[in-house]
Amino acid sequence: MDKKNALRAGALAAGTTLMMLLMSSPALALTRDDGDDPGPGLSVIQTLGLYVLIPLALFGVIAGLVMMLDKSRAKGKTTSSNITVKSDAQANKA
Length: 94
Known about the structure:
By secondary structure, this protein is mostly helical. The protein contains three helices and no strands.
């Protein structure tokens, strides 16, 4: 029964992949569509800045803000350091 389910899942995955490849073929067309007005292309530096540097900078700013705000509040709210636990030997004597 497991082989039958695996075969069914494989066929479904292959069929889905094939359909997606067939449906995306117009994206690779060389002819322009009506009303298509592409702008000037981006240079390598502009592409790296837009898709690599800006997301990394945003991630750094957000992570820095989270760390800064989290550490400022965490100093007074530690409860585990305020708890004293008696060992079993001391608890039996008392």
